[in-house]
Write a structure and sequence with these properties.
The protein contains 68 helices and 4 strands. It is an all-alpha fold. Helix 38 runs antiparallel to helix 39 and helix 50 packs parallel to helix 52. Its main location: nucleus.
Length: 1377
């Protein structure tokens, strides 16, 4: 048989290979080096496989593998020219023959095989042993029935190729195509028997055959046209590996498969499918089998050779699955998507042509296609092994554009994918951040839910401040489920981010969620949600850790959050008490029923008496049932709205059926034990919610949260007090005061509601009161005791135990006399709370009167301490507090109030004594007010009335004199502002007091108003406004005092003006709410002028008319507009009262000022009020009919005297009204009332400016930008031309204006319709002057620019003055006018 020439040399491989055709010495040295390397690799492989083998098949394979290595390395290789004659005879073609006996043949084949293994590589062997090549490919050998023969023949052929190999990367084909196919089939058949391990020697030979094939790379001679043979080889390898289950064969098989892929131009789809099938199987089973590792190794090493064929196969499958009508559409799509995902995990370069195809499908019109591709690409991008985001930047941009897809489900998937990408590749966060920011404001609720969940699951260190702010916005989302999910996720983040300033809003926003009024029906759900978040998420269950976490949270609370937290505790305690009340009522009713049954059986009475008793019993049952129903209704109100029906049924069943009370009732009763610990509470909770029905389980869960101590319990309180005591004793910590303060604040908050939990630690609290010397901390612990130890003395006397109250008595008395003023006040309050009336009076007697010797310092009493300069302030504070808290002590011991008052006036409040600090003076004023109130309670005589009048005159004189400080930042020790503030507060207390209602004159009213908005000290204005607001809010003052508060909106300080506006609007709403709850009160009622905000207007007009600036001929109309706009905006909101307001203004225009009958200032303000009211009601629909009821005008305005009144002369800048006419008898008839309504008293230069009037405070000056000289010249020319062209129209406008004025004088209009028309006329007049004002402003700006240039030039002349610098421009003169 003639051998075929090197056919494989014609193949062009994709990769440039190195040639090893060198001289014989080089070949020998290289072959020796390769043998040594192979030997070391095999030894390493042997050791590793020994360690990894655990199953029996693996052990057998490992042993065989080791035997193969030993067999290969036990002989040294020799050159074929050095062979002996005997060895040469073995390589002769006649040495082996198919006709030989089987044993002889096998023996000789083995000798040939072993000899060939010893021979070194030499390409010239082909010429020497050509006949042997032809002999071994005999069909009788390759198709021999004995397997051992076939194994040796295959091994001999491979060894011959090894020995005569001249190029290891491209062997020569020595045979024809038919022979080569038969050889490949023979070798493939032998390799398929690798899993048969019965015969050890044969298995070793086959394994050695596999290695030699990988070394020789014989399979690269397979022609491209032989697709079936190529596929058979690949499938055979996968079958062997899958059946064996180990990794022993993967290394040589990988070498063979990679070498074949390198030289194959067109890889058949069968081979591609064989490579991809293990990847898909791994995806389903989640098990990395041996065939998976084989595919992964082959693909990883043949990326550049297989990428084209692999991508063609995947793209073909992708395009086929686009047709949804085909069968198994979903399965095929999942299959190809899983394949792509697994290939991406190996190397993203394998998808060089697939990724652009996926990018095209991102734009598909089918939502399902886009969604599937997004899920696939998201998984590819988020794989940790993948780097697709950086490798395919254009595709990544197209992928991220799907964040704005029209379908919400696709946006949801994109957001979830973004979270996975960020977790796998944190460097991509900046790229995705903007997209997440946009989706936070998505219109779809589900999208917002997902984006919140994704962002909060990202590492907090990655989240930027912008994204944190967006998350905070979502905590106030319009949808409740979004808000609660966001808060829940943020609470889960809190332990990790509580030290980060950008996250410190979490606990405040959570607790404020209780006050969310966006959905009033969900208010109870909000409270329950907040409580569950605190208990389940933020607070751990261990008492010490729980308290630490609670203190950390409490330290972050702001004022509003503390109020909300207090409200949470209040509702919780209320629910617990209501449940306890229900069980008490049930117990009483059951006990009464049992008593009735026993009485009926034991007593036999007459029939009439029995009937009477039965009626009484029925009535009692009805009353009891009504009482129980009332309690149930209270419980239902505290449960979430959607569970009201289930809650009613639950409690009704408990009341009606005794059997139903059973386990649940007993468990709930246990939970009402105030001394339960955390572990006991958890056990009780699990017992309550152990129901199998889901609805009832949720209901019981909510009920358990209402009943149980989920936040504050006995362990918390005990540990908290222990920590406070240890910190008070041990002051080594640098910030011990702040630590104590936080704990005291928390203890003070829970003390009023959990007295039963704090009272067991009363001895510790008492010791802290004695040992704390810090003023602030002392007051705090005393306030805690005051809230927790209510009626402590009575309880201790009943229990007959050692009393804490007795031990505290002397300590409290000493602090009242010797402590600071704040300590003294706190101690008096504590005395009032914990002691009985008898003990109170006894303590007061010791404090106020002489007992024992007067020589000792300890026997000096409060009244004596008034003359002691060191203890004077404390004594006055204590007396003030005693007069307020325990007024009986003054009445009981006949304290001489007159002598105290005289001492205060003569020694402390004397105008000639300047040595007394103003702090003492303010305290003395407070004591004087308390003395006045004490006198009024005991009854006023002429003498006591005179003493009271003296105090009131002093207060009023102090306010009138106004010893003001003009520097707001004066921190001098003697702060004179305290005196003014004390006087103002004293006037308010005397006015609002029920026992002594001070009646203020009109002048006093004006002086009080000046203190609100004219006092130069901002501190005084703020304090006065705050005091007035608090008194109005508590309904201690009538609505007319709200007009004083309203004047503060024109304050020059913008923050204070905004605060006063907020106060005023709140008071108006507060009085409106009161009116809505009072059915018998309307505008016609006698007391309406004290309650209805509409009656503020006369007082507002009166106060503005008597403004000091207005009286000095320099009225600030803009400030007056601010007052009126604020008032009318609030008064007309959601109320149809315009008809009443217009008529009220007309009524006031018919009256005169009670203080200045000739003044027309109030008429000007009335016209301004009408104009502002008209502007505020523009675009609103209201009743145009005149108000039919009566109106109340205060005594500040008097009815005009028609007979004797001289016609009032209006302001010199006002139009003069016609006020006099003669009747038929010649007597003068005053028509001033009608003309006062008809005439517009506003000055000509007045203009409504609602924009500036509604912007409170002094507006910031805007710097003028200097114009170019050429631009100024052009504007001057343009104005000259326009003024020349507009001369005629301006004359026409003047004539029209005069005619309109004449028409207005002649027309007689009703008062109701006249005022809006006047306002409209004023608005038209102001619009007509807009053009003229614009021209004047332009002229002013030009002249000011010229002045600035002139002044800038004059700066270079030193002290020399310029005429332009000292003169006043015409524009400035106009502005002054």
């Amino acid at each position: 048989m003639a051998p075929r020439k090197a056919a494989a040399t014609k193949k062009q491989t994709p990769r440039k290979r190195k040639s090893v055709s060198k001289k014989s010495k080089d070949v020998e040295s290289s072959s020796e080096q390769e043998e040594s390397e192979n030997e070391s690799e095999e030894n390493t492989k042997k050791d590793s496989d020994k360690k990894s083998s655990s199953n029996k098949p693996e052990e057998v394979s490992q042993q065989l593998f080791s035997a193969s290595l030993m067999n290969q390395t036990q002989h040294e290789q020799v050159d074929h020219r050095d062979l002996t004659d005997e060895e040469l005879s073995i390589l002769d073609e006649d040495y082996i023959s198919p006709k030989q006996a089987i044993n002889t043949l096998i023996s000789r084949l083995e000798e040939v095989y072993k000899l060939l293994k010893k021979i070194k590589q030499d390409e010239k062997m082909f010429d020497t042993y050509d006949n042997l090549f032809d002999a071994v490919v005999n069909k009788k050998f390759t198709d021999h029935k004995d397997g051992r023969v076939r194994t040796f023949i295959a091994s001999i052929i491979v060894e011959m190729y090894r020995c005569m190999l001249h190029d290891p990367d491209q062997p020569d084909a020595r045979y024809t195509d038919a022979d080569m196919i038969r050889i490949f089939n023979l070798i493939t058949d032998e390799l398929s028997q690798l899993t048969v391990k019965d015969k050890k020697e044969q298995h070793v030979s086959r394994y050695h055959l596999l290695e030699r094939v990988a070394e020789v790379k014989l399979f690269i001679l397979v022609s491209d046209e032989k697709f079936d043979l190529l596929e058979r080889i690949f499938k055979t390898f996968y079958e062997v590996v899958s059946e064996d289950g180990t990794l022993h064969y993967t290394i040589p098989m990988t070498e063979i498969m990679v070498s074949m892929l390198e030289v194959t131009d067109a890889i058949p789809f069968g081979v591609t499918e064989a490579l991809l099938t293990p990847l898909v199987r791994k995806r389903k089973t989640k098990v990395e089998s041996a065939d998976y590792h084989l595919s992964r190794s082959v693909l990883d090493r043949s990326v550049e050779y297989i990428v084209q064929s692999l991508d063609d196969y995947i793209i073909k499958e992708l395009r086929e699955i686009k047709n949804k009508k085909k069968k198994n559409y979903n399965e095929k799509r999942a299959l190809i998507y899983n394949t792509i995902s697994e290939v991406n995990l190996i190397d993203s370069k394998l998808l060089l042509y697939v990724v652009p195809e996926l990018a095209l499908q991102l734009k598909d019109e089918d939502d399902g296609v886009r969604l599937g591709v997004i899920q696939l690409m998201g998984e590819m991008f988020s794989a940790r092994e993948s780097n697709l985001v950086n490798e395919y930047q254009t595709v990544a941009d197209e992928f991220f554009s799907r964040f704005s897809d029209k379908e919400p489900k696709i946006r949801v998937q994109m957001i979830r994918t973004a979270g996975d990408i960020i977790k796998a590749h944190p460097s991509c966060y900046k790229m995705i951040e903007e997209k997440l920011l946009e989706r936070c404001d998505d219109y779809d609720e589900k999208v917002r839910l997902v984006v919140v969940d994704v962002i909060t699951n990202i590492s907090p260190t990655l989240i930027s401040e912008k994204l944190v702010n967006k998350i905070r916005e979502r905590c106030r989302d319009k949808k409740q489920n979004v808000r609660e999910l966001c808060l829940h996720q943020c609470c889960k983040l809190w332990p990790a981010v509580q030290q980060d300033p950008k996250w410190n809003w979490i606990v405040n926003d959570l607790i404020k969620y209780m006050a969310d009024r966006s959905d009033p029906s969900s208010e109870k759900d909000h409270r329950l949600f907040v409580e569950q978040m605190l208990d389940r998420v933020l607070l751990p269950q261990e008492p010490k850790l729980r308290l630490k976490a609670l203190l950390d949270i409490f330290a972050q609370f702001d004022t509003l959050s503390k109020t909300a937290f207090k409200q949470l505790i209040f509702f919780k305690v209320g629910y617990q008490l209501t449940v306890g009340k229900l069980f008490e009522s049930l117990f009483e009713s059951n006990q009464e029923e049992e008593e009735e049954d026993t009485e009926m059986t034991n007593q036999e009475e007459e029939q009439d008496e029995e009937n009477t008793q039965q009626l009484e019993k029925k009535q009692k049952k009805k009353d009891k049932k009504a009482q129980l129903d009332l309690i149930v209704n209270q419980l239902i109100k505290l449960q979430p709205t959607q569970q009201e029906a289930a809650t009613r049924k639950f409690w009704t069943d408990i009341i009606g059926d005794k059997d139903e009370q059973g386990r649940i009732v007993r468990t709930i009763k246990k939970s009402l034990n105030w001394n339960s610990t955390v572990k006991e509470i958890q056990e009780i909770k699990s017992q309550i919610i152990s129901e199998k029905k889901q609805d009832k389980k949720i209901l019981l869960n909510n009920i358990s949260y209402g009943v149980l101590h989920t936040i504050i319990d006995l362990d918390i309180c005990t540990e908290l007090i222990n920590q406070c005591e240890s910190l008070v004793v041990d002051k080594n910590a640098s910030d011990w005061k702040s630590l104590v303060k936080i704990r005291f604040n928390l203890l003070d908050m829970i003390a009023p509601y959990y007295k039963h939990l704090i009272k067991p630690s009363k001895l510790q609290i008492s010791n802290m009161i004695k040992s704390i010397h810090d003023d602030e901390l002392s007051c705090m612990i005393i306030d805690i005791a005051r809230n927790a130890f209510v009626d402590l003395e009575e309880e201790e006397s009943k229990s007959k135990q050692e009393t804490v109250s007795y031990d505290l008595e002397q300590v409290l008395m000493d602090m009242v006399k010797k402590g600071s003023p704040s300590q003294s006040k706190s101690c008096v309050n504590l005395i009032d709370k914990i002691y009985a009336d008898v003990s109170k009076l006894s303590i007061c007697e010791k404090l106020l009167t002489h007992v024992g010797d007067d020589d000792g310092e300890d026997d000096r009493h409060l009244i004596e301490l008034l003359k002691d300069s060191e203890s004077q302030l404390t004594a006055m504070s204590a007396l003030c507090e005693l007069a307020t808290t325990i007024p009986k002590c003054f009445e009981e011991f006949n304290i001489d109030l007159d002598s105290i008052q005289d001492y205060l006036f003569d020694d402390l409040l004397s105008p000639t004594d300047n040595d007394v600090s103003n702090h003492k003076k303010s305290t003395a004023i407070q004591l004087l007010v308390r003395i006045v109130l004490l006198r009024s309670k005991s009854g006023l005589s002429d003498t006591s009335q005179q003493q009271n009048d003296k105090v009131i005159r002093f207060l009023q004189d102090q306010i009138k004199s106004q010893h003001f400080i003009h520097d707001d930042d004066d921190d001098d020790e003697d702060d004179q502002q305290l005196v003014i503030m004390a006087c103002f507060d004293g006037i308010l207390q005397l006015t609002e007091s029920q026992g002594y209602q001070l009646k203020l004159s009109m002048q006093d009213f004006i002086h009080l108003s000046h203190l609100i908005y004219r006092h130069p000290s901002l501190r005084v204005r703020r304090s006065s406004s705050r005091s007035l607001f608090e008194a109005l809010k508590q309904m201690k003052l009538t609505i007319r005092f709200a007009s004083i508060l309203l004047l503060g909106v024109c304050d020059s300080n913008q923050d204070h003006a905004q605060l006063v506006k907020k106060y005023s609007c709140a008071i108006i709403q507060h009085f409106r709410a009161l009116i809505s709850k009072t059915t018998s009160l309307d505008l016609d009622s006698k007391m309406s002028y004290e309650t209805y905000p509409e009656y503020m207007l006369p007082y507002v007009i009166f106060l503005i008319a008597h403004d000091s600036n207005y009286q000095n001929e320099s009225p600030s109309f803009l400030n007056y507009q601010k007052i009126l706009f604020t008032y009318f905006d609030a008064i007309t909101k959601n109320t149809d009262n315009m008809s009443f307001m217009y008529q009220l203004i007309n009524k006031m225009k018919q009256r005169t000022d009670a203080l200045d009958a000739d003044s027309t200032r109030h008429l000007v303000i009335c016209d301004m009020a009408a104009a502002v009211l008209h502007r505020c009601t523009e675009g609103k629909s209201y009743d145009t009919k005149p108000y039919p009821g009566r109106m109340f005008i205060p005594g500040f305005f008097k009815v005009r005297d028609v007979a004797n009144q001289v016609p009032a002369t209006p302001h010199k800048t006002h139009m003069t009204p016609k006020v006099v006419n003669n009747n038929s008898d010649g007597a003068a008839v005053d028509l001033s009332a009608i003309d006062a309504i008809k005439t517009l008293y506003l000055p000509k230069e007045f203009k409504l400016n609602d924009r500036m009037a509604r912007s409170l405070g002094v507006p910031a000056a805007t710097p003028r930008r200097k114009k170019n000289a050429a631009v100024v010249t052009k504007e001057k020319k343009r104005r000259k031309k326009s003024s020349a062209g507009d001369a005629t129209p301006s004359k026409k406008r003047t004539k029209k204006k005069k005619s309109d004025d004449d028409d207005d004088d002649d027309d007689i209009v009703s008062p109701r319709s006249r005022l809006p028309r006047s306002a409209k006329k004023n608005e038209t007049y102001s619009d007509r002057e807009d053009d003229e004002e614009e021209e004047e402003e332009e002229e002013e700006s030009e002249e000011e620019e010229e002045e600035e240039d002139t002044v800038a030039k004059n700066l270079d002349f030193g002290d020399k003055e310029s005429p332009a610098a000292t003169s006043t421009s015409p524009a400035r003169k106009k502005r002054r006018i």
